[in-house]
Design brief:
The protein folds into 2 domains: about 70 residues, no CATH class; about 200 residues, Uracil-DNA glycosylase-like domain (Uracil-DNA Glycosylase, subunit E, 3-Layer(aba) Sandwich). Helices cover about 40% and strands about 10% of the residues. The protein is built from 12 helices and 8 strands. The strands form 2 sheets. A 6-stranded mixed sheet has the order 3-5-4-6-8-7. A hairpin with a 2-residue loop joins strand 7 and strand 8. It is globular and about 65 Å long. About 30% of the residues are buried. About 20% of the residues have low confidence.
Length: about 290
């Protein structure tokens, strides 16, 4: 590879990385812009001791041509309210996002130990989106979130509101099951670094679906989304995430461990608040769930 070609490639990659950081997801390149980049003048690469990908030194030679003229406009502006995408555009965008998630190896330990990437499941036009922390063993095996015992309870909770799994969207902050030491069983909590690395996928899911309400399931999910700890105090208190109302509540796994009527009622009160936020009808029977006679 010639030095001039390498410099052009580095400059192009730097420009595209900058666009990506600003939320651009689709880029079109015109023949004119390609011809512009064919001019001989190129920026020179900085030589530094440490690894700094795509870092360019100030230009000391004669002026260089302008960067590639890119006619790019993201389908969705992250964290803002956007017009709903058409079904075809949204389906295509989700398919592309899913392909990127399935191919992700940013966490080598998770990529090498996973059976499946657990991307998410549900209605792409859902009004409510449930967010957990990470897949467990059952989810890793089946490639779908919340399919184990906790998932079955979540399905029942959703059904009690009058909705079904097909009406909502369910995802996790982490798309891969946290790896476990050899010979050990169970599931471990994802690290903050793992969640920070993976959460851009969730951001794109939220921005494409544009739900009216988010529900954070459990303390780890609330911590990963809001940076706040203490689910006992957080639950039932409306928050906002990426411009969307967010309700923190207990994880269904907690209700499997603590089946006290009072704890079930607290989760149900959170679901009643979600239903009210969505303008859903609430029957007297629903309002009285888990209340003592």
């Amino acid at each position: 590879m010639s030095e001039s070609y390498r410099q052009l490639l580095d400059a192009t990659i730097q420009h595209l990385e900058g666009l990506k950081a600003r939320g651009v997801r689709h880029v079109s390149v015109t023949p004119e812009s390609l011809r512009a980049r064919a001019l001989p003048a190129r920026p020179t690469l900085a030589t530094t001791s440490g690894p700094k990908p795509f870092s360019l030194a100030p230009v000391v030679a004669k002026p260089v041509p302008a960067p590639i003229a890119l006619a790019a406009k993201p389908l969705v502006q992250p964290g803002t309210q956007n017009p709903k995408l058409g079904t075809t555009d949204k389906t295509a965008a989700f398919a592309a996002l899913r392909d990127r998630a399935l191919a992700c190896v940013k966490c080598p330990n998770l990529a090498s130990s996973r059976t499946n990437v657990v991307f998410g499941v549900g209605n792409l036009d859902a009004q409510v989106m449930f967010v957990g922390e990470a897949p467990g063993a059952d989810e890793d095996a089946q490639g779908e979130p919340f399919v184990g015992a906790a998932g079955q309870l979540l399905t029942k909770i959703i059904g009690a509101t009058g909705l079904s799994r097909a009406d909502v969207y369910i995802a996790n902050i982490l798309k891969c099951r946290p790896d476990m030491p050899a010979g050990s069983s169970g599931n471990r909590k994802p690290t903050p670094e793992e969640m920070q690395t993976c959460i851009p996928f969730l951001h794109e899911q939220i921005d494409l679906i544009q739900p009216k309400v988010l529900v954070a399931l459990g303390g780890t999910a609330a911590e990963g989304l809001l940076g706040l700890t203490g689910i006992m105090k957080l639950r039932g208190q409306w928050q906002t995430y990426r411009g969307v109302p967010l309700m923190p509540t207990y994880h269904p796994a907690y209700l499997l461990r603590n089946q006290a009527m009072t704890e079930k009622r607290r989760v149900w009160e959170d679901m009643l608040a979600v239903m009210e936020k969505l303008g859903m009808p609430i029957s007297e029977k629903q309002r009285n769930f888990f209340l003592k006679a």
